[in-house]
Amino acid sequence: MNVAIPTEQKQMQSIVEKVRSGERLTREDGVFLYQSDDLLTIGQLADEVNRKKNGKKVYFIENMSLYFTNVCEARCAFCNFRKDQGDEGAYTLSGDEMIEYVEQHIHPGVREFHIVGGHNPHVPFQYYIDSLKALKERYPNVTLKAYTAAEIDFFARISGLSYREVLQELMKAGLESLTGGGAEILSDYYRKKCMSPKPMFRNIWKFTGRPTSSVCARIRRCCTGRSKATKTGSTIC
Ligand code: SF4
């Protein structure tokens, strides 16, 4: 595959040659690539390296996205999913109601439930625990990937538990990994501006900065997946 390199980009040309010959890039090369806007060349090179290492293999998991509630106290600027309690269209499903929904939509290829939702302050932390328990009991062989870091923070606030205790309770109920998202913006200024004006992450560094225990380390995975069915069709969190 030929890569079109603008002649003036001598350093890019040198990087292309290094990548193709398997030579390790230097720190300066990395900085140059980071600052470059030549995304086509970088993308093509990445694709070449990937194909060399992995051939045509692609790995993914087929999952099913479930949203137990759309009632949310946060007000993220980009969100068109959340509702206030009592709004038209607001819902909070019980475990049995969610199982009824899953029964109607699941198929044998689904290996994971991907669960996120609103930060609903009208139900206790136990509700979120029971939601996971109900699914795990009915579908023991489907992995439970549930809740963003933002939800873990919310649970800690409504329960009075520490992050670790929240995670331990959720894991006892069947939680096996966390969903990605929720803790990408670590600046209070930008979080307030772009996301929720509600206070979040009083101690976010305790959550994201280090694996505080094997418990946390196990679930600090961010994954991607493909949804086959969703409760609302919305993308959230
Ligand atoms: S994105 Fe999630 S946390 Fe933010 S308002 Fe919507 S439902 Fe709530």
Automatic annotation (TrEMBL):
It holds the Pfam family Radical_SAM. InterPro entries: Aldolase_TIM, F420, rSAM, rSAM_sf. Its cofactor is [4Fe-4S] cluster. Residues 58-237 form the Radical SAM core domain. It comes from the Bacteria. Keywords: 4Fe-4S, Iron, Iron-sulfur, Metal-binding, S-adenosyl-L-methionine. This is Radical SAM core domain-containing protein.
